[in-house]
Amino acid sequence: MGDGNSAYGKKKFKRSRSHFADRITADGRDGWPVTEGRYRLVACRACPWASRAVISRRLLGLEDALSMGIVDPIQDDRSWRFTLDADGRDPVLGIRFLSEAYDARETGYPGGVSVPAIVDVPSGQLVTNDFQQITLDLATEWTALHREGAPDLYPERLRDEIDDVMHGVYEDLNNGVYRAGFATNQKDYEEACTAVFHRLEWLSKRLAGQRYLVGDTITEADIRLFTTLVRFDPVYHGHFKCNRWKLAEDPVLWAYVRDLFQTPGFGDTVDFDHIKRHYYEVHTGINPTGIVPLGPELAGWLSAHGREELGGHPFGDGTPPGPVRPGEEVPASGRP
Ligand SMILES: N[C@@H](CCC(=O)N[C@@H](CS)C(=O)NCC(=O)O)C(=O)O
């Protein structure tokens, strides 16, 4: 399991490894060749790991190539469900629970059901739930189906640096907030929370003089940082007790995350309503009343950030993605 209530008990929070790690590649070496229209991405807009894939798909213009289903932000005891769709069924896969795709792949699979997941539409089988690999493959293996003007999100010459930055950000921040939030003793909490804020300080210094994390264009590293930062004040600050300061109190990081939020492909995928309801309602172990806080105010997300002055080209030699595909818009309830 990922971050469901069963993921923490008396022990240290430990994120489970993705069980299904087949890769969809240009040469199809795992039996899953990149093919237009064959696969469906199943995501939850509340989930930071799934949201990476939602953003990459949009930036790369893969909407026609890889369709997308969005699950209800609230799981029940059968995990992720398609209750946002008519009749509670995913219109393409015809299933009510994501677990049905896991079962189709492996009978009696004893592990947890997690998003993001990519499902093979013809067979209804799950192909992968490997959240660390999915976006890298969208960027590097699906190139034949990228839109014209798609950015290179994982440029070869910068891979070592991107990997290095992403590793530290994952340990201390992406996953660090979960370690803080699900800690069951003071020491584990303090260690995790301290690492979160050290990493934020490091990031703030790095981003004071450069618009993006690595190089002068948006890369995979920015996507992975964004999906954590956008959740910071709405959930990690309160719900996960990462509350030494709010992101909005750090001028550099607050401007950085608003810059990305306002870049097509980022903010237009974010549903603050799903985010808040998922964390506060689902994790009853740490929020037993399930009350969802009213704040923070969201209007600030659209205010000027001034980061253009740092130079850089968001899409390199490419162009921004076009409008959100009809039917995939975030409802007004989740937008600033
Ligand atoms: N596949 C990984 C990472 C992805 C992940 O944690 N996704 C979360 C949502 S943010 C999830 O689906 N967790 C399963 C659950 O909470 O039931 C895992 O299972 O830990």
From TrEMBL:
<protein>
    <submittedName>
        <fullName>Glutathione S-transferase C-terminal domain-containing protein</fullName>
    </submittedName>
</protein>
<feature type="region of interest" description="Disordered">
    <location>
        <begin position="309"/>
        <end position="336"/>
    </location>
</feature>
<dbReference type="InterPro" id="IPR036249">
    <property type="entry name" value="Thioredoxin-like_sf"/>
</dbReference>
<feature type="domain" description="GST C-terminal">
    <location>
        <begin position="155"/>
        <end position="282"/>
    </location>
</feature>
<dbReference type="Pfam" id="PF13410">
    <property type="entry name" value="GST_C_2"/>
</dbReference>
<dbReference type="InterPro" id="IPR016639">
    <property type="entry name" value="GST_Omega/GSH"/>
</dbReference>
<dbReference type="InterPro" id="IPR010987">
    <property type="entry name" value="Glutathione-S-Trfase_C-like"/>
</dbReference>
<dbReference type="InterPro" id="IPR036282">
    <property type="entry name" value="Glutathione-S-Trfase_C_sf"/>
</dbReference>
<dbReference type="InterPro" id="IPR040079">
    <property type="entry name" value="Glutathione_S-Trfase"/>
</dbReference>
<dbReference type="InterPro" id="IPR047047">
    <property type="entry name" value="GST_Omega-like_C"/>
</dbReference>
